[in-house]
Amino acid sequence: MRDEDTYVIESPKLDAMAATYLPEVFKGLGTTLKHIVGTVGGTRRKTVQYPEQRREYEGVEEGGLYRGHYRGVHRLNRDEEGRVKCVACFMCSTACPAACIHIEAEESPWDDREKYPRKFDIDELRCIYCGMCEEACPVDAIELTPEYDVVGHSRQEMIYDKAKLLAMYDRTVNNKPM
Ligand code: SF4
Ligand code: SF4
Predict the structure, then answer these.
(1) pTM (2 d.p.)
(2) Cα angle at 91 between 85 and 93, to 5 degrees?
(3) Res 78 pLDDT > 90
(4) Could you give the number of structural domains in the chain?
(5) pLDDT tens-digit map of 121-176
(6) What is the rounded distance in angstroms from the CA atom of residue 49 to the CA atom of residue 126?
(7) Is 52 a domain residue?
(8) Is residue 84 part of a domain?
(9) Which domain holds residue 75?
(10) 124 closest CA partner among 169, 95, 164, 67
(11) pLDDT of 60-74, one tens digit each?
């Protein structure tokens, strides 16, 4: 490495008072006090009484559909005829960095596509909710929904199969853009 590629950053000179760090300590305490007063007074309260209260996600309503950025549990979308939209191209499972999508393809019984997924499983516990599957899908068949309060008593219950993913579509159809 050449000398001209090296940057030397000098530490700022502190006066006697600043060198005690007390001004910064009191500034920090002031911020803490502001948050305490705001929380007790209710103006800056960040907690909610879940599950009676649910947090509203940032997003906008457009044409009756929610367009937000929260990435929750997946759904498999249906086409206009109510069939699974997926064409079993494996793009999502190839893009998935957590390797949590398992698809088994089969010849499609319909004329408008060659294949469809006989089996489509997502391990929701292994997923890191990055949204890469959604980005990779060429036919908008897989999406992440704003749903976050999904629970299971075993790992098996948290592996969402095709039926569960389609049921999630039916439950959230008006909450995410198509
Ligand atoms: S959100 Fe990311 S980790 Fe989860 S299934 Fe999709 S690609 Fe995989
Ligand atoms: S969900 Fe989309 S990307 Fe994944 S296999 Fe189906 S069509 Fe391909």
Answers:
(1) 0.73
(2) 100
(3) yes
(4) 1
(5) 999 999 999 999 999 999 999 999 888 888 899 999 999 999 999 999 999 887 65
(6) 28
(7) no
(8) yes
(9) 59-172
(10) 164
(11) 555 544 456 778 999
38 within some domain: no
Q: Is residue 26 part of a domain?
A: no
CATH number, domain with residue 103: 3.30.70.3270
Best of 93, 134, 142 for a ligand 2 pocket test (most atoms within 8 Å of beta carbon): 142
Measured CA to CA, the distance from residue 165 to residue 159 in angstroms comes to 10
Helices (H), 42-159: 91-95, 132-136
Instruction: Answer yes or no: are the C-beta atoms of 74 and 140 closer than 8 Å.
Output: no
Ligand 1 atom at shortest distance from the alpha carbon of 92:
7
- Exposure class string for 143-161: b at 16+ Cβ within 10 A, else e: bbbbbeeeeeeeeeebbbe
Ligand 1, from 101, 134, 144: best to mutate by most atoms within 8 Å of Cβ? 101
Residue located nearest, by CA, to atom 7 of ligand 2? 86
